[in-house]
Structure prediction request, 466 residues.
Amino acid sequence: MPFDPDKSYRLHDRVALRPEPFGALAYHYGNRSLNFLRAPELVALVRSLGDHDSVRSALSASEIDERRWPSFEKALASLARSEVLVAA
Amino acid sequence: MTMTPSKPNSLGDEMKSGLDAPICLTWELTYACNLQCVHCLSSSGRRNPAELTTEECEAVIDELQRMQVFYVNIGGGEPTIRPDFWHLVDYAVAHDVGVKFSTNGSRIDADVARRLAGSEYVDVQISIDGADAATNDHVRGEGSFATAIEAMEHLRAADFGEFKISVVMTRHNLSQIDEFKALADRFGAQLRLTRFRPAGRGADSWHELHPTNEQQVELHRWLIDHPGVLTGDSFFHLSALGESLPGLNLCGAGRVVCLIDPLGEVYACPFVLHDEFKAGSVRDEGGFRKIWLESDLFTGLREPQSAGACASCGEFDACQGGCMAAKFFTGIPLDGPDPECVIGYGADLVAAAQGNALPSVSKDHSRTRVTLGTKPGG
Prediction:
Protein backbone atom coordinates (compact mmCIF):
# COMPACT_ATOMS: atom_id res chain seq x y z
CA MET A 1 0.00 0.00 0.00
CA PRO A 2 1.54 3.35 -1.01
CA PHE A 3 2.22 5.91 1.68
CA ASP A 4 -0.59 8.43 2.02
CA PRO A 5 0.02 11.59 4.11
CA ASP A 6 -3.73 12.03 4.54
CA LYS A 7 -3.90 8.77 6.47
CA SER A 8 -2.84 7.99 9.98
CA TYR A 9 0.33 6.05 10.82
CA ARG A 10 2.03 4.86 13.98
CA LEU A 11 5.27 3.23 15.03
CA HIS A 12 5.28 -0.56 14.60
CA ASP A 13 4.80 -2.34 17.94
CA ARG A 14 8.13 -4.09 17.58
CA VAL A 15 10.21 -1.08 16.66
CA ALA A 16 12.38 0.58 19.29
CA LEU A 17 13.77 4.10 18.91
CA ARG A 18 17.15 4.86 20.45
CA PRO A 19 18.11 8.54 20.76
CA GLU A 20 21.45 9.44 19.15
CA PRO A 21 23.29 12.73 18.64
CA PHE A 22 22.11 12.87 15.00
CA GLY A 23 18.50 11.86 15.69
CA ALA A 24 17.69 8.25 16.46
CA LEU A 25 18.22 4.66 15.47
CA ALA A 26 15.11 2.61 14.81
CA TYR A 27 15.47 -1.11 15.27
CA HIS A 28 12.79 -3.50 14.07
CA TYR A 29 12.83 -6.64 16.20
CA GLY A 30 10.60 -8.41 13.69
CA ASN A 31 12.67 -8.10 10.52
CA ARG A 32 15.96 -7.17 12.27
CA SER A 33 16.40 -4.05 10.19
CA LEU A 34 18.15 -0.95 11.40
CA ASN A 35 17.03 2.46 10.18
CA PHE A 36 18.53 5.87 10.79
CA LEU A 37 16.34 8.86 11.59
CA ARG A 38 18.72 11.62 10.71
CA ALA A 39 17.10 14.68 12.24
CA PRO A 40 15.79 15.34 15.76
CA GLU A 41 12.64 16.92 14.25
CA LEU A 42 11.97 13.69 12.39
CA VAL A 43 12.22 11.71 15.62
CA ALA A 44 9.75 14.02 17.35
CA LEU A 45 7.42 13.79 14.36
CA VAL A 46 7.55 9.99 14.30
CA ARG A 47 6.82 9.84 18.03
CA SER A 48 3.82 12.17 17.59
CA LEU A 49 2.20 10.32 14.67
CA GLY A 50 0.04 8.11 16.88
CA ASP A 51 -1.66 11.20 18.38
CA HIS A 52 -2.91 12.47 15.03
CA ASP A 53 -5.48 11.27 12.52
CA SER A 54 -3.17 11.99 9.60
CA VAL A 55 0.47 12.67 8.79
CA ARG A 56 -0.52 16.14 7.59
CA SER A 57 -2.10 17.02 10.92
CA ALA A 58 0.99 15.77 12.74
CA LEU A 59 3.09 18.02 10.50
CA SER A 60 0.79 21.00 11.12
CA ALA A 61 1.12 20.47 14.86
CA SER A 62 4.90 20.26 14.63
CA GLU A 63 7.36 23.14 14.48
CA ILE A 64 8.65 22.02 11.10
CA ASP A 65 8.55 24.76 8.47
CA GLU A 66 5.94 23.98 5.81
CA ARG A 67 8.53 24.30 3.04
CA ARG A 68 10.34 21.30 4.52
CA TRP A 69 7.25 19.07 4.70
CA PRO A 70 7.90 17.26 1.39
CA SER A 71 11.30 16.04 2.58
CA PHE A 72 9.78 14.81 5.84
CA GLU A 73 6.94 13.07 4.01
CA LYS A 74 9.54 11.38 1.87
CA ALA A 75 11.39 10.24 4.97
CA LEU A 76 8.18 8.88 6.51
CA ALA A 77 7.30 7.06 3.27
CA SER A 78 10.68 5.37 3.40
CA LEU A 79 10.12 4.35 7.03
CA ALA A 80 6.71 2.94 6.06
CA ARG A 81 8.35 0.85 3.33
CA SER A 82 10.72 -0.56 5.96
CA GLU A 83 7.68 -1.31 8.18
CA VAL A 84 9.02 0.98 10.89
CA LEU A 85 5.69 2.79 10.48
CA VAL A 86 2.38 1.04 9.90
CA ALA A 87 -1.03 2.37 8.93
CA ALA A 88 -2.99 3.02 12.13
CA MET B 1 19.49 1.11 5.88
CA THR B 2 17.33 4.16 5.34
CA MET B 3 19.09 7.48 5.47
CA THR B 4 16.58 10.24 5.98
CA PRO B 5 16.30 13.11 5.50
CA SER B 6 19.56 13.78 3.73
CA LYS B 7 21.94 16.10 5.54
CA PRO B 8 25.30 17.53 4.56
CA ASN B 9 27.19 15.10 6.80
CA SER B 10 27.42 11.60 5.47
CA LEU B 11 26.19 8.85 7.72
CA GLY B 12 29.77 7.65 7.89
CA ASP B 13 30.82 10.98 9.44
CA GLU B 14 28.19 10.59 12.12
CA MET B 15 29.30 7.03 12.83
CA LYS B 16 32.92 8.16 13.11
CA SER B 17 32.13 10.49 15.98
CA GLY B 18 30.51 7.61 17.83
CA LEU B 19 27.07 6.60 19.04
CA ASP B 20 25.54 6.63 22.52
CA ALA B 21 25.70 2.83 22.54
CA PRO B 22 27.14 0.25 20.15
CA ILE B 23 24.98 -0.82 17.22
CA CYS B 24 26.23 -4.29 17.53
CA LEU B 25 28.34 -5.78 20.21
CA THR B 26 30.45 -8.90 20.10
CA TRP B 27 30.35 -10.86 23.34
CA GLU B 28 32.60 -13.84 23.71
CA LEU B 29 31.08 -15.95 26.46
CA THR B 30 33.85 -18.46 27.04
CA TYR B 31 37.39 -19.30 25.99
CA ALA B 32 36.47 -22.99 26.10
CA CYS B 33 36.23 -24.70 22.73
CA ASN B 34 36.07 -28.28 21.54
CA LEU B 35 37.95 -27.25 18.40
CA GLN B 36 41.29 -25.52 18.04
CA CYS B 37 41.09 -23.73 14.70
CA VAL B 38 44.46 -22.53 13.42
CA HIS B 39 43.13 -19.02 12.83
CA CYS B 40 41.25 -18.50 16.10
CA LEU B 41 41.21 -14.75 16.82
CA SER B 42 41.00 -15.30 20.57
CA SER B 43 43.40 -18.28 20.85
CA SER B 44 40.59 -20.23 22.50
CA GLY B 45 40.68 -23.77 23.86
CA ARG B 46 40.58 -23.92 27.66
CA ARG B 47 37.95 -22.26 29.82
CA ASN B 48 39.31 -19.46 31.98
CA PRO B 49 38.30 -19.91 35.66
CA ALA B 50 37.74 -16.15 35.97
CA GLU B 51 34.97 -16.05 33.33
CA LEU B 52 31.82 -14.08 34.17
CA THR B 53 29.31 -15.95 36.32
CA THR B 54 25.69 -16.40 35.27
CA GLU B 55 24.67 -13.51 37.55
CA GLU B 56 27.35 -11.24 36.13
CA CYS B 57 26.23 -12.09 32.58
CA GLU B 58 22.64 -11.27 33.51
CA ALA B 59 23.79 -7.91 34.89
CA VAL B 60 25.56 -7.18 31.58
CA ILE B 61 22.35 -7.99 29.68
CA ASP B 62 20.37 -5.70 32.02
CA GLU B 63 22.82 -2.90 31.21
CA LEU B 64 22.59 -3.57 27.46
CA GLN B 65 18.81 -3.37 27.73
CA ARG B 66 19.04 0.00 29.50
CA MET B 67 21.42 1.26 26.79
CA GLN B 68 19.12 -0.11 24.07
CA VAL B 69 21.73 -2.32 22.47
CA PHE B 70 19.30 -4.13 20.21
CA TYR B 71 21.30 -7.26 19.63
CA VAL B 72 24.57 -8.96 20.45
CA ASN B 73 26.76 -11.30 18.47
CA ILE B 74 27.70 -14.06 20.86
CA GLY B 75 30.80 -16.10 20.21
CA GLY B 76 33.75 -17.60 22.00
CA GLY B 77 35.36 -20.14 22.13
CA GLU B 78 32.33 -22.28 21.53
CA PRO B 79 29.62 -20.44 23.45
CA THR B 80 27.21 -23.40 23.62
CA ILE B 81 29.70 -25.19 25.88
CA ARG B 82 28.71 -22.94 28.78
CA PRO B 83 26.16 -24.85 30.89
CA ASP B 84 24.09 -21.64 31.25
CA PHE B 85 24.24 -20.78 27.52
CA TRP B 86 20.56 -21.43 26.71
CA HIS B 87 19.48 -19.70 29.89
CA LEU B 88 21.48 -16.59 28.92
CA VAL B 89 20.02 -16.61 25.40
CA ASP B 90 16.50 -16.74 26.85
CA TYR B 91 17.38 -14.06 29.39
CA ALA B 92 18.71 -11.73 26.68
CA VAL B 93 15.69 -12.20 24.44
CA ALA B 94 13.35 -11.58 27.38
CA HIS B 95 15.20 -8.29 27.96
CA ASP B 96 14.91 -6.97 24.39
CA VAL B 97 18.46 -7.93 23.46
CA GLY B 98 18.32 -10.12 20.35
CA VAL B 99 20.99 -12.76 19.95
CA LYS B 100 22.99 -14.00 17.03
CA PHE B 101 25.43 -16.67 18.09
CA SER B 102 28.34 -18.23 16.24
CA THR B 103 28.90 -21.91 16.64
CA ASN B 104 30.83 -24.76 15.13
CA GLY B 105 27.55 -26.69 15.21
CA SER B 106 28.64 -29.44 17.58
CA ARG B 107 25.74 -28.82 20.01
CA ILE B 108 23.03 -28.21 17.40
CA ASP B 109 21.17 -31.51 17.50
CA ALA B 110 17.55 -32.09 16.42
CA ASP B 111 16.12 -30.95 19.78
CA VAL B 112 18.17 -27.76 19.94
CA ALA B 113 17.30 -26.96 16.32
CA ARG B 114 13.57 -27.28 17.08
CA ARG B 115 13.95 -25.07 20.11
CA LEU B 116 15.85 -22.44 18.11
CA ALA B 117 13.22 -22.51 15.37
CA GLY B 118 10.69 -21.42 18.01
CA SER B 119 12.38 -18.08 18.76
CA GLU B 120 12.40 -15.33 16.19
CA TYR B 121 14.85 -13.24 18.20
CA VAL B 122 17.63 -15.79 17.96
CA ASP B 123 19.81 -16.11 14.90
CA VAL B 124 22.41 -18.82 14.36
CA GLN B 125 25.65 -18.60 12.47
CA ILE B 126 27.54 -21.78 11.64
CA SER B 127 31.22 -21.48 10.82
CA ILE B 128 32.96 -23.41 8.07
CA ASP B 129 36.19 -22.49 6.34
CA GLY B 130 36.13 -24.80 3.35
CA ALA B 131 33.43 -25.96 0.93
CA ASP B 132 34.63 -29.54 1.38
CA ALA B 133 35.91 -31.53 4.33
CA ALA B 134 39.56 -31.52 3.22
CA THR B 135 39.82 -27.73 2.94
CA ASN B 136 37.74 -27.05 6.04
CA ASP B 137 39.25 -29.63 8.36
CA HIS B 138 42.75 -28.49 7.49
CA VAL B 139 41.99 -25.25 9.32
CA ARG B 140 39.27 -26.27 11.79
CA GLY B 141 40.22 -29.85 12.65
CA GLU B 142 39.30 -33.40 11.72
CA GLY B 143 35.57 -34.05 11.44
CA SER B 144 34.53 -30.41 11.87
CA PHE B 145 33.04 -30.11 8.37
CA ALA B 146 30.76 -33.12 8.87
CA THR B 147 29.67 -31.71 12.26
CA ALA B 148 28.80 -28.32 10.76
CA ILE B 149 26.84 -29.85 7.87
CA GLU B 150 24.94 -32.05 10.29
CA ALA B 151 23.96 -28.97 12.33
CA MET B 152 22.75 -27.26 9.14
CA GLU B 153 20.65 -30.32 8.32
CA HIS B 154 19.07 -30.20 11.77
CA LEU B 155 18.23 -26.51 11.32
CA ARG B 156 16.70 -27.17 7.93
CA ALA B 157 14.69 -30.14 9.22
CA ALA B 158 13.38 -27.99 12.09
CA ASP B 159 12.36 -25.29 9.59
CA PHE B 160 14.52 -22.71 11.36
CA GLY B 161 14.51 -20.48 8.29
CA GLU B 162 17.40 -18.35 7.16
CA PHE B 163 20.40 -19.10 9.37
CA LYS B 164 23.88 -17.87 8.46
CA ILE B 165 26.93 -19.69 7.19
CA SER B 166 30.11 -17.83 8.08
CA VAL B 167 33.36 -18.29 6.20
CA VAL B 168 36.76 -16.72 6.77
CA MET B 169 38.30 -16.12 3.34
CA THR B 170 41.68 -17.80 2.91
CA ARG B 171 44.10 -18.46 0.10
CA HIS B 172 42.88 -22.08 0.09
CA ASN B 173 39.13 -21.47 0.02
CA LEU B 174 38.73 -18.31 -2.05
CA SER B 175 38.48 -20.35 -5.25
CA GLN B 176 35.49 -22.15 -3.64
CA ILE B 177 33.47 -18.97 -3.25
CA ASP B 178 30.75 -20.10 -5.70
CA GLU B 179 30.54 -23.44 -3.92
CA PHE B 180 29.97 -21.66 -0.60
CA LYS B 181 27.16 -19.68 -2.20
CA ALA B 182 25.63 -22.86 -3.63
CA LEU B 183 25.86 -24.55 -0.23
CA ALA B 184 24.12 -21.61 1.46
CA ASP B 185 21.42 -21.60 -1.23
CA ARG B 186 20.90 -25.34 -0.79
CA PHE B 187 20.15 -24.78 2.91
CA GLY B 188 18.15 -21.58 2.39
CA ALA B 189 20.88 -19.89 4.42
CA GLN B 190 22.56 -16.52 4.11
CA LEU B 191 26.27 -16.54 3.31
CA ARG B 192 28.59 -14.35 5.36
CA LEU B 193 32.21 -13.88 4.31
CA THR B 194 34.75 -12.29 6.60
CA ARG B 195 38.34 -11.31 6.46
CA PHE B 196 41.21 -13.47 7.70
CA ARG B 197 42.90 -11.41 10.39
CA PRO B 198 46.37 -12.05 11.75
CA ALA B 199 45.04 -12.09 15.32
CA GLY B 200 45.35 -14.76 17.99
CA ARG B 201 46.53 -18.05 16.53
CA GLY B 202 45.78 -16.56 13.12
CA ALA B 203 49.05 -14.64 13.36
CA ASP B 204 51.02 -17.88 12.94
CA SER B 205 49.28 -18.98 9.74
CA TRP B 206 48.46 -15.58 8.26
CA HIS B 207 51.43 -15.45 5.90
CA GLU B 208 50.39 -18.78 4.42
CA LEU B 209 46.62 -18.31 4.47
CA HIS B 210 45.78 -14.69 3.72
CA PRO B 211 44.50 -14.23 0.14
CA THR B 212 46.89 -13.16 -2.60
CA ASN B 213 46.35 -9.76 -4.18
CA GLU B 214 44.92 -11.42 -7.30
CA GLN B 215 42.43 -13.22 -5.08
CA GLN B 216 41.52 -9.93 -3.39
CA VAL B 217 40.71 -8.42 -6.78
CA GLU B 218 38.58 -11.47 -7.60
CA LEU B 219 36.81 -11.22 -4.23
CA HIS B 220 36.09 -7.51 -4.69
CA ARG B 221 34.44 -8.20 -8.07
CA TRP B 222 32.51 -11.14 -6.65
CA LEU B 223 31.17 -9.14 -3.68
CA ILE B 224 29.99 -6.37 -6.00
CA ASP B 225 28.22 -8.99 -8.13
CA HIS B 226 26.62 -10.56 -5.02
CA PRO B 227 25.33 -7.64 -2.89
CA GLY B 228 23.13 -9.99 -0.82
CA VAL B 229 26.16 -11.73 0.66
CA LEU B 230 26.98 -10.41 4.14
CA THR B 231 30.49 -9.26 5.06
CA GLY B 232 30.13 -7.45 8.39
CA ASP B 233 31.87 -4.55 6.63
CA SER B 234 34.95 -6.74 6.78
CA PHE B 235 36.54 -5.93 3.43
CA PHE B 236 36.39 -2.14 3.32
CA HIS B 237 40.12 -2.04 2.48
CA LEU B 238 39.13 -3.47 -0.94
CA SER B 239 37.22 -0.28 -1.75
CA ALA B 240 40.57 1.18 -2.88
CA LEU B 241 40.11 -0.97 -6.00
CA GLY B 242 37.70 1.68 -7.27
CA GLU B 243 34.17 0.65 -6.44
CA SER B 244 33.00 0.82 -2.83
CA LEU B 245 31.44 -2.27 -1.31
CA PRO B 246 28.02 -2.00 0.35
CA GLY B 247 28.21 -0.94 4.01
CA LEU B 248 29.69 1.92 5.99
CA ASN B 249 33.25 1.32 4.76
CA LEU B 250 34.99 2.41 7.90
CA CYS B 251 36.65 0.95 10.96
CA GLY B 252 33.88 0.70 13.55
CA ALA B 253 36.15 0.08 16.55
CA GLY B 254 34.90 2.04 19.55
CA ARG B 255 32.51 3.94 17.30
CA VAL B 256 29.80 1.42 16.47
CA VAL B 257 31.29 -1.88 17.68
CA CYS B 258 33.34 -3.29 20.52
CA LEU B 259 33.92 -6.59 22.28
CA ILE B 260 33.31 -8.00 25.75
CA ASP B 261 35.57 -10.98 26.46
CA PRO B 262 34.65 -13.97 28.65
CA LEU B 263 36.20 -12.24 31.70
CA GLY B 264 34.14 -9.12 31.10
CA GLU B 265 37.03 -7.11 29.73
CA VAL B 266 36.01 -4.57 27.10
CA TYR B 267 38.06 -4.13 23.94
CA ALA B 268 37.48 -1.48 21.28
CA CYS B 269 37.92 -3.89 18.39
CA PRO B 270 36.43 -7.40 18.21
CA PHE B 271 39.64 -8.57 16.55
CA VAL B 272 42.25 -7.14 18.92
CA LEU B 273 42.22 -8.87 22.29
CA HIS B 274 45.33 -7.03 23.38
CA ASP B 275 45.89 -4.82 26.43
CA GLU B 276 46.55 -1.83 24.22
CA PHE B 277 42.92 -1.95 23.02
CA LYS B 278 41.40 -2.79 26.39
CA ALA B 279 39.43 0.01 28.01
CA GLY B 280 38.33 -1.67 31.25
CA SER B 281 36.03 -4.36 32.57
CA VAL B 282 32.29 -4.66 33.05
CA ARG B 283 33.28 -5.55 36.64
CA ASP B 284 34.66 -2.01 37.17
CA GLU B 285 32.55 0.67 38.82
CA GLY B 286 30.28 2.24 36.19
CA GLY B 287 30.34 -0.97 34.16
CA PHE B 288 30.05 -1.20 30.41
CA ARG B 289 28.18 2.06 29.99
CA LYS B 290 30.96 4.13 31.52
CA ILE B 291 33.59 2.45 29.34
CA TRP B 292 31.58 3.04 26.17
CA LEU B 293 30.82 6.66 26.94
CA GLU B 294 33.85 7.86 28.87
CA SER B 295 36.97 5.73 28.47
CA ASP B 296 39.97 7.52 27.00
CA LEU B 297 40.50 4.73 24.50
CA PHE B 298 36.97 4.84 23.09
CA THR B 299 36.64 8.61 23.03
CA GLY B 300 40.08 8.82 21.39
CA LEU B 301 38.99 6.51 18.58
CA ARG B 302 36.09 8.88 17.84
CA GLU B 303 38.44 11.80 17.22
CA PRO B 304 39.42 12.47 13.59
CA GLN B 305 42.18 10.00 12.72
CA SER B 306 45.36 10.95 10.93
CA ALA B 307 45.85 9.53 7.44
CA GLY B 308 49.54 9.19 8.31
CA ALA B 309 51.64 7.48 5.67
CA CYS B 310 48.53 7.10 3.47
CA ALA B 311 47.81 10.85 3.29
CA SER B 312 49.30 11.21 -0.19
CA CYS B 313 47.48 8.17 -1.61
CA GLY B 314 44.47 9.04 -3.76
CA GLU B 315 42.54 6.03 -2.48
CA PHE B 316 42.61 6.98 1.21
CA ASP B 317 39.04 8.30 1.18
CA ALA B 318 37.86 4.95 -0.16
CA CYS B 319 39.78 2.55 2.10
CA GLN B 320 40.42 4.76 5.17
CA GLY B 321 43.81 3.12 5.57
CA GLY B 322 42.26 -0.28 6.17
CA CYS B 323 41.96 -2.45 9.25
CA MET B 324 43.54 -1.52 12.57
CA ALA B 325 43.69 -5.13 13.75
CA ALA B 326 45.46 -6.30 10.61
CA LYS B 327 48.03 -3.52 10.97
CA PHE B 328 48.55 -3.99 14.69
CA PHE B 329 49.36 -7.70 14.55
CA THR B 330 51.64 -7.42 11.52
CA GLY B 331 53.73 -4.68 13.12
CA ILE B 332 52.57 -1.82 10.89
CA PRO B 333 51.92 1.57 12.56
CA LEU B 334 48.19 2.25 13.01
CA ASP B 335 48.42 5.25 10.70
CA GLY B 336 50.26 3.18 8.08
CA PRO B 337 48.79 1.16 5.21
CA ASP B 338 46.84 -2.05 5.62
CA PRO B 339 49.12 -5.12 5.29
CA GLU B 340 46.85 -6.26 2.45
CA CYS B 341 46.68 -2.79 0.82
CA VAL B 342 45.49 -3.52 -2.72
CA ILE B 343 47.71 -0.78 -4.14
CA GLY B 344 50.68 -2.62 -2.67
CA TYR B 345 51.90 -0.21 0.03
CA GLY B 346 51.57 -2.79 2.82
CA ALA B 347 53.67 -5.71 1.64
CA ASP B 348 57.09 -4.12 2.16
CA LEU B 349 56.19 -2.98 5.66
CA VAL B 350 55.01 -6.48 6.56
CA ALA B 351 58.29 -7.90 5.28
CA ALA B 352 60.29 -5.28 7.18
CA ALA B 353 58.49 -6.08 10.44
CA GLN B 354 59.11 -9.81 10.18
CA GLY B 355 61.62 -10.94 12.72
CA ASN B 356 60.60 -8.12 15.09
CA ALA B 357 58.76 -9.09 18.26
CA LEU B 358 55.16 -8.63 17.12
CA PRO B 359 52.26 -8.15 19.53
CA SER B 360 50.05 -11.15 20.20
CA VAL B 361 46.79 -11.62 22.10
CA SER B 362 47.21 -10.90 25.80
CA LYS B 363 45.69 -14.20 26.91
CA ASP B 364 46.38 -17.52 25.19
CA HIS B 365 43.94 -20.34 26.05
CA SER B 366 45.20 -22.88 23.50
CA ARG B 367 45.19 -26.42 24.87
CA THR B 368 48.12 -27.52 22.76
CA ARG B 369 50.35 -25.93 20.21
CA VAL B 370 48.35 -25.63 16.99
CA THR B 371 50.04 -25.62 13.62
CA LEU B 372 48.79 -25.61 10.06
CA GLY B 373 49.59 -28.95 8.47
CA THR B 374 50.22 -29.56 4.79
CA LYS B 375 47.90 -27.99 2.27
CA PRO B 376 44.70 -29.98 1.66
CA GLY B 377 45.03 -32.28 -1.31
CA GLY B 378 48.65 -31.25 -1.81
Q: What stands out?
A: The longest helix of chain B spans residues 144-157. Chain B touches chain A through 23 residues (CB under 8 Å).
